Amino acid sequence: MTESSSLPPAKRLKVSSSSSTCCSSSFPTSIVTWNCNGFIPRCKYNFNDMKHMLEETDQPDMICIQEARIQASSKNNRGTPALASSSSEYQKGGGPVVEKVLNSNIFRNYTPYWSLADTRYAGTLTLIHQRIISKNKQPIEVRYSFDSAIDWLLQQYQQTRDQHQFRRIDDDDNDDDNDHNHDTTTRPKLSTKKQQQRQTSIHSFFKATSTTSPSKEHRKQQQQQPCRHHKEGRFQYFAFTGLDIMQTYVPNHGTKPEQWERRKRWDLQMEEFLQQRRTIAANRPLLWCGDLNVAHMYADGTHWKRIPLTKDGSLRTSSSRIYEWWTDERKCMSFSNNNNNNHKDPQFVGMPSFTPIERSRFTKLLQVGQFVDVWRKLHPTTTTTDSIPNWDKDPYWTWK
Q1: What is the tens place of the pLDDT at every residue in 277-290?
Q2: What is the CA radius of gyration of the chain?
Q3: Residue 9's closest CA among 62, 49, 64, 63?
Q4: Roughly what angle, to the nearest 10 degrees, separates helices 257-280 and 356-369?
Q5: What is the C-alpha separation between 229 and 76, in angstroms, rounded?
Q6: pTM assigned to the model
Q7: Among 288, 269, 263, which Cα is nearest to 354's?
Q8: Which stretch of DSSP H or E encloses residue 114?
Q9: How far is the C-alpha of 117 from the C-alpha of 121, rounded, in Å?
Q10: Which of 54, 222, 291, 305 lies at 20 to 30 Å from 11 by C-alpha?
Q11: What is the pLDDT of residues 314-362, one digit of tens each?
C-alpha cells in the first residue's frame, strides 16, 4: 500500500510460555516466531510493541522473524541488508530507524542472522541472544539453503552424497552465480565484551561480522564451507549442541496456477530435504518453526463456514465442504484463457493455506520429518467438521 495510514498490520505473534532464564541448555528453550509483515514498518511504527513483547517474554533466547522485506546488499551477499549509509535504501528512511531499534537496549544483546531476497520481498531474520551464543563452545553453524544444510550434515557424519545417491534439491532455485554466495554471518566465537563492542556499530550489526580480523583458521573454514542462500531468503537452519532449529517462511499457495506450482515445488523440496536429513541423522532432534503458511486441521483455522453440497440448502452432512472465511469458491480459484483451465480441481478449492492439497502435503511432511505438532499436543481439542467452536472464546486455533 502507498499510504502510510493504510499500513498493513503486523501478523500475529506466537510466543512460547517457557522462560529462558530457567534452563542452562546450550540451545534455545524460549522462542518467539513472528511474521512481521515488513521489519522497517515495524521499527517505524511498532517499536513499543516489540519492546513490550521482549519484556513480556523475558527476552527470549531466539526470535525468528519472517517476511522481513529488506533488500539484500547483493545477489552474492544475501546475508547482509542493503542498509549501509551509502545506499539508497538508507536514504529512504529504512536505515536510520532500523539502526535505532537494533541498537536499543532491548535488542543490543542479540546477534542477527539475515537471509534476504534481491528486492524488498520475503526474507527472514533470526536474532539469537548472547547467553545462548556464549554457552556453545563452537560457533553456531548456520545454513541458508536445503543443499548447504545437507552438505554440512554429511560432513558431520562423514558421509557423502554418492554414498546415498542424493540428488541436489535447490540447484534450480538459486542463481547460477550463487555458488560463491558465502555465509557472511558466520564468524569466530567472541567474548561477551567483544560481542557488546561489536553491537555498538549499526554497520557491524547489519554486516553481522566481527570488527576484528577473523583468524586464519576461521577464514579457511569460510572458504571451505561456502553457504548459499535461498534466493528469497526463506530458509534458515541452525545447529546447536543438542538441537537443530529450522525456521522457514513458506510461500503462500495463492489463487493462481503459477502460485500453486511455486508452493508445490517448495513442499516437494522440503520433503526431499527431510528425507535426506533423516537418512543421514535419523535420531538428531529438529525443531521446525516460522510461518508455515498452512492450517493443517479444522481446529487450526478460524471462522470457517460449512457450505452444503446440495443447492436446496439441505442440512449439513459429514460430506459437506468447508471453506475458511471465503464462502464463494470463485474467489478461491483463478482461471485463464491461456491455460485452458476450464475445470475446477477440488484439491485446489478453498482458502489458500487451507486447501485439501496443501493440507495433505503438510501431513506428508509431518510424517517424513517425524514431527509432533507441539501446540496441538499441549492444547488438544475436539473440534471436527461437525463441531464449530466459539472462536471468540476458544484459544486453541492457531491460523497457520
Answers
A1: 999 999 999 999 99
A2: 22
A3: 49
A4: 10
A5: 9
A6: 0.77
A7: 263
A8: strand 110-115
A9: 6
A10: 305
A11: 544 555 555 544 444 444 444 443 444 444 676 776 778 878 899 999 9
